[in-house]
């Protein structure tokens, strides 16, 4: 079986949808392939997009921002993951990029969140989603809210992807689900298509049902998720039929990252053990491998974003982080991924020391500051994940760690004291979510994979703006930026056929 299009996109998440829409808008015929039903990690996400420089929502909320201020902050996070010129372009395009998403039907809102949180409740959609207040001291700029949560109840990723998927269909893109890319077609040293395995009939319907039913359990209750996806993989092996999709102009890889590749994550060290894999079984590194087999290079494959959020409730920011020796570390006002990476440096183990005042305020904030999905985690760490005692020495002994030392700058406060276990593997109720940030190295002007003509990469299959460090919304923002860039340039490329003429 054979299918031909100008552009073939492998992977239908945020990056793939944006690449497909942009390529179709540039006049190319486009086919998108997805191993499962489409949506990937994007549809499971919080739907937060990091955007600034004066978005419509910031202006409506009375927030002052500029591309320059956004650049000044992001330079601290992004460091050398991309060049300064690329980061500047990302910031200068940011407000327009969010408006483009709105044009595709993705709704945002200017309802500004008044408290520090890792994810706002359904009342708020614009919030400070990074570490802005920790990066600049009091003489620096005011922390600017740039987290734009898609306006929808619960976790908003589903609404974000549904709208993008609708826009992709409206653009006339052909979407082929339950179709797995297994090898790239190379012609005269150029990528000219994709060999796939595709499902039809009843196996296809079963595969689709299993992958939809298994997506959330795969993250939140892996024994069940792995069983369902194990059956889906068996269907692929037993009933998958060969299919070649020819690309006249080029192929875009937007097949996610590699957090599902457990062997590779294990090799990075024991500190990562027991974390929650944020993604889908499609994040097995297969897309990145396709690029490597064709001659592409990877970078930042050791960069894993580990999220340890201690807010909400916001009062917990007043606690003190300590390691297993009782030594203080870190800054509780920083974003959860920055805290997570410091916990990893300490072997994955850490505790938050709080006094009675903080605990009382924190408990009172739970109802108003948490969404339902956060509430069970907060309940866990304020109950089973915590030990309490009248003195710091006693509470440390109860937790089995060294005694934290008082420091004049931040005394411990009112007894009794509590230690909350915030380790990577803090127990069944509260493991740290993890996401891979590295991928294929691309030309930052076009998104073409370096050294592989005709092959482009985007989203978590590629090195991008968030590949050094993640703050909420930066991955989806990069998927939009890199996906659109790849879609536009692949559509404009001369392609294999014309190059040979
Ligand atoms: C619970 C959760 C919350 C998150 N919240 C946020 C947030 O609010 N903001 C933010 O910026 N980031 C967030 N993230 C991270 C973000 O969702 C992802 O980094 C991002 O969606 C990745 O997008 P992508 O397009 O690169 O990949 P995906 O969305 O994962 O899409 C990749 C697609 O490729 C398909 N695929 C894989 N291999 C193949 C193959 N061989 N052939 C064909 N198809 C293939 C997969 O089935 C998948 O559909 C969150 C992630 C999770 C899981």
User: Structural class, from secondary structure content?
Assistant: alpha/beta
Taking the sheet with the most strands, its summary is:
7 strands, mixed
Shape: globular
Instruction: Return residue spans where pLDDT drops below 50 for at least 5 consecutive residues.
Output: 497-501
How many DSSP helices?
17
User: What is the helix fraction of residues, given as a range?
Assistant: 25-40%
Hetero groups: flavin-adenine dinucleotide
Task: Calculate Rg over CA atoms.
Answer: 23 Å
Question: Oligomeric state of the chains?
Answer: single chain
Distance between the termini: 26 Å
Number of strands: 19
Roughly what is the average pLDDT, rounded to an integer? Answer: 93
DSSP strand (E) fraction? Answer: 15-25%
